[in-house]
Design a protein that fits this description.
The chain is of the alpha+beta class. It has 26 helices and 15 strands. The chain has a five-stranded antiparallel beta sheet with strand order 1-2-3-4-5. The chain has a four-stranded antiparallel beta sheet with strand order 6-9-10-11, with helices on one face. Strand 1 (about 20) and strand 2 form a beta hairpin. Helix 2 (about 60-65) packs across helix 3 (about 70-80) and helix 16 packs antiparallel against helix 17. The radius of gyration is 29 Å and the shape is globular. It binds zinc ion.
């Protein structure tokens, strides 16, 4: 299928490509630009944008364009290229069994949902729960819209409802039913308002539950199960995704009550992380629909910490982030739910529109620290630096530095010195900045990577040499080399996209960049000179290590060994100079 699908043709159906050297080039659809940096490689059947760093094969492209999953992309590509779809590949018995189990668990959740709804609707206890909900401003329409239900206090009501149909093991695996220490089953949710949590495609996979009285914990969610992992799911995503796509931004709140309140205010593009902090898979999920987020967490200490942690993660993933910190209502700190109930949707919407960029939020947080002493100022700077460092654009970063200096009444040169020091220390950690990634690989490494990828005549032999001498260990590009060496030694023709699949995002980008560089036909002589350069660098690193050990002044015999080693390394270095 992949062989028959031509990426140039598929991309060409979305926008115009022009031939440029060996490649085709066009304006990138994934970021806004005036000069084309989106490249398609007709031979390798891959694309890469040098502006935003997106890259992959024809399926990655379609998945990104259409914001769809792989099977859908497969269908689209097949259609565009007039190819009959191959039959889905056979699954192993275990896979089939797991899939079956997931289907049953989803069905069980659907039944539990019906059960909870009936409890709220038709029982005395449910009536009290409805009164509580009404008190929180949730009337019948909202209850119906968000599928709010009630788990009764008995302790085994749901269990009795389900146990004729499902095995004990399945019940326990579902997370709806718990086991006590004696192995006895009982309802996990008791005397609680229930909120169904759906996955992206709208299937209920878990429940959140709020205590009715003062029971602890106030909020209790389903545990991790075969169908639910809390770091993979965003509450309300199934209903928010259209709005997010359309408006190209999402509002991120903490809990389901907040999400419900915001959605009821007519703002559909809201999701909740359903836990105090956001996890990377959740950001990836969100990133499929937008790169712009307004974070509106609770104003308490936990919410602030969660905001700051989420900021870090979002910035790392290249999100444009704004922060909405709601003002208190009367003397109460306001979460979105409370704020909208007391002040109304209009007031919320207005604040949302005015939500400042994250740096402004952080500066105002830093200003709350004691800035009268030198230590206090240092603390404030140290609080801000990591975030400022994550601003990919240098000019913008510099502007923020000026602003921070003014706002915190710092001397600008001092701040700038701290910034550039931190920059040097952090350069290696930063993940998603193309400008930094580009610098990460030395030309020799780049050239060897190209040769391993395309020198059909000798890539196997070259890979063997690199592996034997452990020449790529400790390099920035180590993981790329490791993957390429394995692929080359297999003797199979290289599949760039399969290779990319085993690499992390940062390495994948770098690999694609390198593969798109125009280069002359590689020769064995050139390969060997690159290998020598690596040997030289390896010896230099070893020499530095030995020198450091010598300086620790070890006892006689050890020192003699080290000195001998030093001599040998210096000879080797002289030979390869
Ligand atoms: Zn781009």
């Amino acid at each position: 299928m992949k062989q028959q699908a031509d990426i140039v043709r598929v991309v060409g159906e979305y926008f115009q490509l022009k031939k440029a050297g060996q490649n085709f080039r066009g304006l990138c659809p994934f970021h806004s630009e005036k000069t084309p940096s989106f490249n398609v490689h007709p031979v390798r059947q891959i694309f890469h944008c040098f502006g935003c760093g997106k890259g992959g094969d024809v399926f990655d492209f379609v998945m990104e364009m259409e914001r769809c999953e792989f099977p859908e992309a497969l269908r689209i590509v097949a259609e565009k290229c007039g190819i009959a779809l191959p039959r889905p590949k056979e699954h192993s018995p275990e896979e089939r069994k797991e899939k079956q189990q997931r289907t049953v668990l989803v069905e069980m959740h659907r039944e539990a949902q019906t059960f909870f709804l009936k409890q709220l609707e038709g029982t005395l206890e449910g009536k009290a729960a409805r009164a509580y909900l009404e008190d929180r401003g949730l009337e019948a329409d909202a209850i119906a819209r968000f599928g709010i239900g009630y788990a009764p206090s008995g302790g085994d009501a749901l269990l009795r409802h389900l146990k004729n149909k499902y095995s004990e093991k399945l019940l326990a695996d579902s997370g709806l039913i718990s086991r006590d220490q004696g192995g006895r089953l009982f309802d996990r949710f008791r005397r609680r308002i229930t909120f169904p949590i759906s996955n992206e495609s709208g299937k209920i996979v878990a429940f959140g539950a709020r205590a009715l009285g003062d029971d602890q914990p106030k909020y209790l969610n389903s545990p991790e199960t075969p169908i639910y992992s809390k770091s993979n799911v965003l509450y309300h995503m199934d209903r928010a995704k259209e709005g997010i796509r359309r408006q190209d931004f999402a509002i991120l709140v903490e809990g389901y009550m907040d999400a419900i309140a915001v959605a009821r205010a007519g703002i559909s593009n809201v999701v909740a992380s359903c836990g105090t902090s956001l996890a990377e898979p959740q950001i990836k999920l969100l990133g499929r629909f937008t790169r712009r987020v307004i974070v509106n967490y609770d104003p308490d200490a936990a919410g602030q910490t969660a905001t700051e942690r989420s900021l870090s993660l979002l910035l790392e993933q290249d999100f444009e982030v704004r922060v909405l910190a709601l003002p208190p209502v009367g003397d109460k700190k306001a979460d979105p739910d409370l704020f909208i109930r007391e002040m109304g949707a209009e007031a919320y919407l207005k604040l949302l529109k005015e939500a400042p960029p994250y740096v402004d939020y952080l500066i105002s947080r830093a200003r709350q620290m004691d800035l009268t002493t030198a230590e206090g100022k240092l603390r404030a700077v140290n609080f801000l630096l990591p975030y400022v460092q994550k601003i990919p654009n240098r000019i913008l970063r510099s502007e923020w530095a000026t602003r921070i200096a003014q706002q915190l009444r710092l001397e600008e040169p001092v701040l700038r010195a701290a910034l550039s020091k931190a920059a040097a220390e952090r350069r290696r950690e930063l993940k998603t900045q193309p400008e930094l990634v580009a610098r990460a690989a030395k030309p020799v490494e780049r050239r060897l990577i190209q040769m391993l990828a395309e020198a059909e005549g000798f890539r196997q032999e070259l890979a063997q040499q690199l592996q034997n001498a452990r020449l790529y260990h400790g390099l920035e590009t180590e993981k790329i080399f490791a993957a390429l060496v394995v692929a080359s030694l297999s003797g199979q023709p290289l599949q760039a996209t399969e290779l990319a699949a085993v690499l992390e995002e940062r390495d994948r980008r770098l690999l694609f960049e390198i593969l798109f560089e125009e280069a002359s036909e590689p020769t064995w002589e050139e390969a060997m000179s690159c290998v020598e350069a690596l040997q030289h660098r390896q010896a230099e690193r070893e020499l530095a290590d030995v020198q450091r050990s010598i300086e620790t002044n070890p006892p006689g015999p050890a020192l003699r060994g080290l000195l001998e080693k030093k001599q040998e390394l210096m000879r080797r270095l002289a030979a390869t100079r």
